[in-house]
Design a protein that fits this description.
The complex is a heterodimer. By secondary structure, chain A is of the alpha/beta class. Chain A contains 8 helices and 7 strands; from the N terminus they run αααβαβαββαβααββ. In chain A, helix 3 runs parallel beside helix 4. Classes of the chains: A alpha/beta, B alpha/beta.
Chain lengths: 222, 374
């Protein structure tokens, strides 16, 4: 979905972010979040990194999990706090302003599920490697990592097609809010390299958006 | 070769100065740094990284490049795009903690509007030292034992930078002027020349009139004055040559008025010595609560306009040069006693916590009001 780059404009006005994302992606992100959330079971302990206005965190809490959700943007968090309160889920969601670089403070093997919606693509290379390492550490054996994010299409043809649509939108976004997004290259390899095994992967037609479920191996498997 | 590369980056990025140019974040080694070498941090605007690297050549040091979304330190920090989180992230993910024995981080002074030394220290154990405003002063700063002399702490707008801004404005606008090719191709060279000439005139003569920009009248008068100047010259020349005609005069009066308005519309925001004309913060002034002040002096260290004066013996601070304030808020963000805040002309108070948490967005608004009302 080439339209992701336009999200930067929405982020500069958090109160309109959710509606904007829905329009930009024609509800696709929401459906992806629904599918990913279906992996979550009542009573599980879940970590949401880059929770934004709480789209994934609220879904997880609705399914009966207890969620810790982190983000660096206080304005987005303020909206997430309000939504958690309005839906009566405030008890189950802990919202914290912190960066992925502070994940080293979390206990090892203390989460059943870690998830990230449109956040990994915001990280620099060092940060992404660090985050994956920390996520693998804090997931219990057999725990899941759920990811929905913008990625770089794998084949040359789709990459070119994708760029054709994306570049004009990127320029428009640049002009309006002086920012852009950076699709992740080689996400699947990075996950496997970090020691996770891919359970399922679901790509958009051009391969620029991916829903991934990865699993931390059980202790017994070599 | 490296000189050519440096020149190329400087030219390219000056032409497109108004756009962000992100580069790789993480750690850069300068020279052969060891376990005691200084650790400096900058933004990931490509041009800045090149200039800082060049400025500290010959010194063994580590340079951390934090994610500022490709925007310069001053704008990113003030706009909430270079935050505590970005500094913490690069400290902890770049591997620097394994490379040095000390925990002292030198931050650019202009990042003080967005990064809280106290928070970085609490969360990472690194102690923040405020470096000089300009990268070129870093060697002298390090030589003095990480102490910034007063002249390294204030910002001005000397002619090389004014020229840079003139080019930064003239280039993208002349690109837009190329659209004229579609319906008036023969006019393009003249319009482009006008854009460059007016832009150069505006920025190079800045010291002559900038005081007047403080009033709305002054900001409106500037483009009108430029327009009148141009029209007077045009009429003079065409009458002398005998080629004056109504269509010519009308066409050029419209074009020159548009160019003058476009070039001056955010002139204040293109300078480091004024707040952007669209930003509501420019209507605020800093206020000091003497009861709370204990004379720590961080405000004096981070103020780029030398507005505050601290008497370390009496432990009191005075707002000595209130007129020079650019409302950047750095002093408010850094004050450990919460003794400083913004106050509007109507007496409304913007407390320190708000200045720290909510940054000015592109429309110049702190999103507080909208976030609370929603």
């Amino acid at each position: 979905m080439s339209t992701f780059v336009l999200m930067r404009i929405l982020e500069s006005a958090p109160q309109r972010y959710d509606m904007g994302v829905r329009l930009l992606t024609l509800g696709r992100v929401q459906r992806a979040y629904d599918r990913l959330a279906s992996y979550i079971h009542p009573g599980q302990r879940v970590l949401d990194i880059g929770c934004g206005t709480g789209a994934l965190a609220l879904r997880a809490a609705q399914r009966g999990a207890s969620v810790k959700a982190i983000d660096v943007n206080p304005q987005m968090l303020e909206i997430a706090v309000r939504r958690a309160r309005d839906t009566g889920l405030a008890e189950r969601i802990e919202l914290v302003e912190m960066t992925v670089a502070e994940l080293d403070a979390e206990r090892s093997e203390s989460y059943d599920v870690a998830m990230s919606g449109l956040c990994l693509s915001e990280l620099g290379d060092d940060e992404l490697a660090y985050t994956l390492k920390q996520l693998v550490r804090i997931l219990r054996p057999g725990g899941l990592l759920l990811v929905a994010d913008e990625v770089r299409p794998q084949s040359l043809v789709t990459r070119v097609l994708h760029s054709l649509v994306r570049i004009p939108l990127a320029i428009l976004t640049f002009v309006i809010c002086q920012q852009t997004t950076r699709p992740i290259a080689g996400l699947r390899d990075k996950l496997t390299h970090a020691g996770l095994s891919i359970v399922s992967a679901n790509s958009s037609r051009l391969g620029s958006f991916v829903e991934l479920v990865a699993r931390k191996p059980d202790k017994t498997t070599p | 070769m490296s000189y050519l590369h440096y020149a190329w980056i400087n030219i390219l990025q000056t032409l497109f100065r108004v756009l962000p140019f992100p580069c790789r974040t993480g750690l850069i080694k300068i020279g052969f740094p060891g376990r005691d070498s200084p650790v400096l941090l900058t933004c990931n605007f490509r041009l800045t990284v090149e200039r800082v690297t060049r400025a500290i050549q010959g010194i063994d040091a580590y340079l951390l490049v934090a994610n500022s979304r490709g925007i310069n330190v001053w704008c990113a920090a003030t706009g909430g795009l270079l935050t505590n989180h970005d500094v913490i992230a690069v400290l902890k993910t770049s591997g620097i903690e394994d490379l040095v024995d000390h925990r002292q981080l030198i931050l650019p002074q202009l990042a003080a509007t967005g990064i809280e030394g106290e928070v970085v220290h609490r969360k990472t154990g690194w102690t923040v030292v405020w470096g000089p405003v300009r990268a070129s002063a870093i060697p002298a700063f390090l030589k003095a034992g990480s102490q910034a002399a007063e002249r390294m702490r204030s910002i001005d707008f000397p002619w090389p930078q004014r020229l840079e801004m003139a080019v930064a404005w003239a280039f993208p606008i002349s690109l837009l002027a190329l659209l004229l090719f579609l319906f008036w191709p023969q006019g393009v060279p003249a319009v482009v020349t006008l854009v460059w000439a007016l832009s150069a005139l505006i920025f190079l003569s800045f010291p002559l009139y900038h005081e007047r920009l403080r009033t709305t009248g002054g900001r409106i008068a500037l483009p009108l004055l430029l327009w009148l100047l141009f029209m007077a010259a045009l009429l003079g020349v065409t009458i002398y040559v005998g080629s004056l005609s109504w269509p010519l005069a009308i066409r050029w009066s419209a074009i020159s008025l548009i160019v003058a308005v476009v070039l001056t519309v955010d002139l204040m925001g293109s300078t480091p010595v004024y707040k952007g004309g669209f930003q509501e913060d420019r209507l605020l002034h800093i206020a000091l609560d003497g009861e709370l002040c204990t004379g720590v002096g961080l405000c004096e260290q981070v103020c780029p306009r030398d507005v505050l004066e601290v008497d370390y013996r009496q432990r009191v601070t005075t707002v000595a040069k209130a007129d020079d304030c650019v409302q950047c808020g750095a002093c408010i963000v850094q004050c450990p006693c919460d003794a400083l805040h913004f106050r509007s002309t109507t007496g409304a108070v913007v407390p320190p916590d708000t200045v720290r948490r909510f940054k000015v967005n592109l429309l110049g608004r702190r999103l507080v009001a909208s976030a609370r009302a929603a």
